[in-house]
Amino acid sequence: MGLQGSAEAIETYKNRLEKIQAGIGEDGLVQHAQALQQFFSHTLWEQLTQAELSQQAQWDAVLTELHRDMRLFLLDVNFVQAASQGQSRQLRLEKLSSRIGRLQEFATVLGSLLADEDTT
User: Fold this and answer.
1) Residues in Cβ contact with 114 at an 8 Å cutoff, skipping those fewer than 6 apart
2) Residues 40/13, Cβ–Cβ less than 8 Å
3) N or C: which terminal CB in the chain sees fewer CB atoms within 10 Å?
4) What span, in angstroms and rounded, lies between the C-alpha atoms of 12 and 34?
């Protein structure tokens, strides 16, 4: 699909993260997280791991961290669901929100690396 397809997939991923962030703590969190995981695994990850860039070392490092944080995101979602109401749940929601922020940052870095590739 090429770099353009990868850029579009990154934007879709970022939009899905924003929707989850906006509805954090609401019903349907698990379903949204599972849908994000499916998109990540079946679309985004496949495209990103096939891209060949001049800054391949940076690209691979960001992909490794993105993949790791995506797994941790799913754990955080499970912890939110298991947390009882009150302070425990609030702390888990804050941790989840922070994790989403990291995933968004990684997606932004990947988008920047792709944009740099278009200009070279």
Assistant:
1) 3, 6, 7, 10, 51, 53
2) yes
3) C
4) 15
Helix 87-119 × helix 56-82 angle, to 10°: 160
pLDDT, position 10: 95
User: pLDDT tens across 35-49, in order?
Assistant: 999 999 999 998 888
DSSP letters along 30-84, please?
Answer: HHHHHHHHHHIIIIIHHHHHH---TTHHHHHHHHHHHHHHHHHHHHHHHHHHHSP
CA distance 107 to 110: 5
Q: At residue 95, what is the residue type?
A: K
- 73 within 8 A of 107, measured Cβ to Cβ: no
